[in-house]
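Hi P.,

Sorry for the delay on this. The queue was packed all week, but I finally got your sequence through. Input first:
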Amino acid sequence: MLLKNISEEEFSNFYDEYEQKCFWQSTSMAHFESSHGWNVHYLGLYDENVIRAATILISKKVMGKYALFEALRGFLIDYDDLDLVDAFLTELKIYLHDHNCLYMKTDPYCEYQPHDKEGNALEGHKRDDLINLFEKHGFIHQGFRNGSDNNYEPRWMSILSLEGKDEDGILKNCDSKTRQNIVNTQKTGLKIDRLNKSELNRLHDMVSTTGERRHFMNPNLSYYTDFMTSFHENMQAYCVYLDTRDYYERYKKNYEELLKEKDHIYKLIEETDSKKNRSKLKNCENKITATLKRIDEAKKLRDEYGDKIDLAAAMYVINDREIVYLFSGSNDNFKHFKAAYALQWHMIKYGIEHHIKRYNFYGISGIFSPDDEEYGVYLFKKGFDADVIELIGNFEYIDRKKTFTVYEELRKIKHLVRK
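Then the structure:
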């Protein structure tokens, strides 16, 4: 077998037919990375005249002529075929050395072991065989990292299968709280804008607000615009908002209907003053009280914020295998509207309508304890009946060890000087 450079078109054709594709290993991602200063290498592993595996490598010079290489989320390869992976890694190391690689990073999009929805490991095949094969080729496994780290993509994910499912079935399988929150966003009448490039500031502002609250970094606005330029229709951004005028009218109408219902119950009581009818009356009066609060809130919100209030926004990357929920943010002042549920449900329905196989809620910490600061994120995603997926982890390969040692010492000095 031989690993060699292929054209973007050849890679794209392989990608389109490859079942386990991910957006990180796409020409769109290559265009995005290229626009941010990375060099792009399209590679195919040939078995005679047939491409058996492929990858996009990105590279950037870090010291003299030597470069850092990365294969974002691994390779387009059948990780179950260890002989194929062995041949690929053998050829890959030759390519890296010939192209002045100093070191390389990769994080295969490959499940390590199965888990139940509570995060408990299940009996099944662990991919220690694959880790051992990488290590045999000199790749250093970075360990079974849990928690969040801005320097890495998540090792743990939360994924909802959409295959063979419809809206009713998915809604039924959600936990009761999630189901009720979805229904409530429909009653409240939350609306959703799909954002064009000139409107991405609404997404950026929401992610910034959440990042300040939860202590994570928000990319610059240009990151989102560049992403949309590279991915076109495969990157979609949405913003949930409250139309305060509609909100007022919706509950005003509800109030009028409840008054009619109350009059009807009074007539029933006049005919039969039963415990059942008195219970109906009390229930109706409670609904009237709650509705009046909503009407009063609508008036105040409109006076203070105008006709439109952005509540939450999110960015998604889409291919025919999965929708990935990549970035999101919300305004904590309006968290009682549960806008995030409206976004998730909107995109889950999109996935069903477009026959996409799974909805990837993306990162969770992998720490399934109420004491974990991100436990609420896990519970939110679990509420949709999503599965827990543990990936195999990150690897680093050092091609020139002596030069790399010098590079690391220089990095330490540079870091100290900056301090």
